């Protein structure tokens, strides 16, 4: 979860005493465009310095992996893209200072920028611009013929000292909507009917989104990110394949790569409501073992007229999806707010700590400080220069590598985790209270995840999701063998099928769900569907518009 999800989470803190104490042992930070990264103790003394070459200065982010390996975004020279914190390169550097991975992701067509995120499997998530021509922009429905740099997120697996393989990617360009030109791509008459999509005309400048913050939630297998130009934070599904991430179906959510949740400025998707975020960075989840775990957090640069704020949001999640109220994602305002001691016009971050304290970084002034729940500053450091982010770690985390990712096996109906020191099980993203043994007998179908620690107890590791049986089918799906208001033929069938339903006042939405309840296809206003790309099996097809909704089973044959 929080930068990385393997951040140390103490399980033995004394809550009564913790509120008045600092948490952790070391603070990690880099001054932007500098050649040094520092680890400070709680007295402010530098205990470790990584010195980088002049041609590999820090571009934006610096993190520690378990065992003390530094992962950093590098400001590469010679990039074809410019502006903002352009990076183009990422490094891993061990505690002794040896560069163990030095990877360039920069061409004339794409380039990394801003934040990165170390993954529990050793891969790294990168934010990257990708270049779209004026012709591509207008065809996509942009109201101006301009070159655009939309963002994508790529997961890179290190394969050698300077090489890596992109094993997963998500493109904002695959999830657009526009209501300007019916003759162009991505047209929908109503923006507000599609909050899962990004309005290409929300901002008509080359640096369209300006994505800047990145986080991963291993329990949900979801990614959060923040966008400066849209003043919003977002959640997408990472359990998809790359092909599903380019579509509107698949993954644990059933929604492919569409936006699962967005918050901060409802007018961006045509909903009513007050804008809370005004320039935003550092979208992340509060991790396990920390008060208010599971909340989303944003660094709101202009939270007040004179101060940046740390805004926490309790998102309305059910399993792997998020609900809307009256067409808008809730809550209408922040769940909890901390007004910082200064204002950063750009960049900045926070980290919520296991004892209830928070580490705040006012980036543009170089101020880092720890504050307790009562608002008392317990520690501070001001660096010379801008500090985009700062993070707190303890000695156990720095000294111990992460355990291997646990593997779940099904033994005659009982799920078993590979051996570890401790266990915690989850079902469909929710913690199963009391399920802390190596094995579990599933009480319901769904996706199971196990979290483990090693004998040190200070580093978490999470398994991949394990699908047991079938997921809970959404309400309304699978309730009807046959609905006389709609006919599907041929049924059974393959290839192109026809849907015969009454004439409706508005174009009908057609959704196809598999037997796990996951949406695998969606269409608008059609009477035929090409289902040849789906695997053979049983599906549920729902047609809905106005006050009409009909659902039927459909058997797809080979």
If you compute it from the alpha carbons, what radius of gyration comes out, rounded to the nearest whole angstrom?
A: 24 Å
Poorly predicted runs of 5 or more residues? 2-19, 471-481
**Which superfamily, in CATH terms, is the homologous superfamily of the largest domain?**
TolB, C-terminal domain
What is the class of the largest domain in the CATH system?
Mainly Beta
Distance between the termini: 41 Å
Assign the CATH topology of the largest domain. Neuraminidase
Give the number of DSSP strands.
45
The class by helix and strand makeup works out as mainly beta
Which range best describes the helical content: under 10%, 10-25%, 25-40%, 40-55%, 55-70% or over 70%? Answer: under 10%
Strand content: 35-45%
Estimate the global geometry from the Cα principal axes: globular
- What is the CATH architecture descriptor of the largest domain? 6 Propeller
């Amino acid at each position: 979860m929080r930068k990385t999800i393997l951040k140390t989470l103490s399980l033995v803190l004394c809550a009564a005493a913790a509120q008045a104490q600092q948490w952790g042992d070391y603070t990690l930070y880099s001054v932007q465009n500098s050649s040094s990264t520092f680890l400070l103790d709680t007295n402010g003394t530098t205990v470790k310095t990584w010195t980088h070459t002049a041609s590999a200065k820090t571009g934006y982010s610096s993190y520690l992996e378990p065992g003390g390996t530094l992962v950093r975004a590098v400001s590469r020279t010679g990039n074809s893209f410019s502006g903002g914190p352009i990076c183009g390169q990422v490094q891993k550097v061990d505690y002794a200072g040896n560069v163990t991975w030095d990877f360039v992701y920069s061409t004339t067509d794409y380039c990394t920028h801003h934040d990165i995120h170390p993954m529990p499997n050793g891969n790294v998530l990168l934010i990257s611009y990708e270049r779209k021509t004026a012709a591509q922009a207008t065809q996509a429905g942009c109201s101006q013929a301009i070159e655009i740099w939309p963002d994508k997120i790529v997961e890179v697996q290190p394969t050698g000292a300077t090489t890596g393989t992109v094993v997963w990617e998500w493109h904002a360009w695959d999830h657009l909507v526009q209501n300007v030109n019916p003759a162009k791509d991505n047209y929908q008459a109503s923006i507000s009917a599609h909050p899962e999509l990004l309005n290409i005309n929300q901002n008509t400048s080359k640096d369209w989104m300006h994505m800047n913050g990145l986080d991963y939630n291993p329990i949900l297998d979801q990614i959060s990110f923040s966008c400066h130009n849209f003043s919003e934070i977002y959640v997408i599904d990472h359990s998809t394949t790359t092909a599903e991430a380019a579509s509107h179906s698949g993954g644990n959510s059933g929604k492919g790569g569409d936006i699962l949740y967005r918050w901060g400025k409802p007018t961006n998707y045509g909903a009513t409501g007050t804008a809370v975020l005004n320039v935003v960075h550092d979208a992340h989840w509060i991790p396990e073992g920390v008060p208010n775990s599971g909340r989303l957090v944003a660094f709101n640069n202009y939270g007040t007229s004179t101060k940046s704020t740390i805004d926490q949001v309790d998102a309305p999640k059910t399993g792997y999806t998020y609900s809307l109220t009256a067409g808008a994602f809730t809550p209408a305002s922040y769940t909890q707010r901390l007004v910082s001691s200064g204002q950063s016009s750009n960049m900045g971050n926070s980290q919520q700590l296991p004892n209830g304290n928070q580490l705040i970084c006012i980036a543009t002034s170089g101020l880092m400080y720890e504050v307790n729940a009562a608002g008392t500053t317990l520690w501070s450091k001001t660096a010379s220069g801008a500090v985009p982010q700062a993070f707190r770690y303890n000695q156990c985390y720095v000294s111990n590598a992460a355990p291997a990712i646990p593997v779940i096996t099904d033994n005659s109906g009982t799920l078993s985790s590979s051996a570890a020191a401790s266990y915690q099980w989850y079902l469909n993203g929710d913690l199963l209270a009391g399920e802390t043994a190596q094995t579990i007998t599933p009480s319901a179908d769904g996706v199971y995840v196990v979290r483990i620690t090693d004998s040190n107890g200070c580093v978490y590791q999470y398994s991949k999701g394990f699908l047991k049986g079938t997921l809970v089918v959404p309400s309304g799906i699978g309730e009807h063998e046959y609905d006389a208001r709609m006919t599907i033929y041929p049924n059974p069938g393959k290839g192109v099928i026809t849907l015969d339903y009454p004439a409706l006042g508005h174009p009908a939405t057609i959704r196809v769900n598999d037997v796990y309840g996951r949406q695998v296809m969606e269409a608008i206003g059609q009477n035929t569907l090409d289902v040849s790309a789906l695997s053979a099996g049983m599906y549920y097809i729902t047609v809905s518009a106005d006050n009409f909704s009909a659902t039927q089973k459909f058997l797809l044959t080979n």
